[in-house]
Amino acid sequence: MLDHLEGIASHIFEKAKAIKLIITDIDGVMTDGGIIYDDNQLEYKKFNVKDGLIVHHLQHHHIKVGAITGRDSLVVRNRCEELKFDFHLHGVKNKMEKLHEVLGMLGISLSACAYLGDDLIDLPILTKVGLSVAPADALPYVQAKVDHVSTKKGGEGVFRELADIILHAQGHLIPLIEKHAK
User: Fold this and answer.
1) Do 21 and 63 meet the contact criterion of CB atoms below 8 Å apart?
2) How many Å apart are CA 24 and CA 134, to the nearest integer?
3) What are phi and psi of 27, to 5 degrees?
4) Strand locations in the chain, DSSP E?
5) Which of 34, 85, 88, 107 has the fewest CB atoms lying closer than 10 Å?
């Protein structure tokens, strides 16, 4: 039933027990990093619905969800609103500064925060939070600095994998599966 979580080191589940907030980058994590512009300069991105489906269940179990992204994109704003993220910050160049502001407002410590990122701009946060995760296709020097490298590439369910890890570590995933299997 939880085959997709096999092979994940036990210390990752230990860290996941303390998580109260997941923050994600968007491009290269929630998407494959590609950006398509049409002739009218409209922007298109592809998101994985499995990532989105789990947000409500995280929030139901008192785990807040947010995004801090370096780009400012209407497509991303709309997706974050659709998923009802607790917060989403766009066009942020100093993500660590914004993270400290968010943590202060929410009263959550760095050790209770998980972060998903894939590039240089994410490294300051990835090296400080309680649980850091990078997609399978993140740059090697980013992968070298995180607690866990996902089995999934950006846009292929990285967020969902982390959500499942956290929900399982906190004892919520199996009951959630059983509830929906009835």
Assistant:
1) yes
2) 10
3) -65, 120
4) 21-24, 36-37, 43-44, 64-68, 87-89, 113-116, 131-134, 148-149
5) 107
Q: Is residue 4 part of a domain?
A: no
Range of the domain at 100: 9-180
User: What pLDDT digit, counting tens, does each position of 119-170 carry?
Assistant: 999 999 999 999 999 999 999 999 999 999 999 999 999 999 999 999 999 9
Output the six-digit token pair for 50: 């499995």
85 lies in a domain?
A: yes
Helix, strand, coil percentages in the chain from 3-state DSSP, rounded to 5: 40, 15, 45
CB count within 10 Å of CB 176 equals 16
Residue 3 within a domain: no
| CATH code (residue 34) | 3.40.50.1000
Q: Is residue 144 part of a domain?
A: yes
What is the count of structural domains for the chain?
1
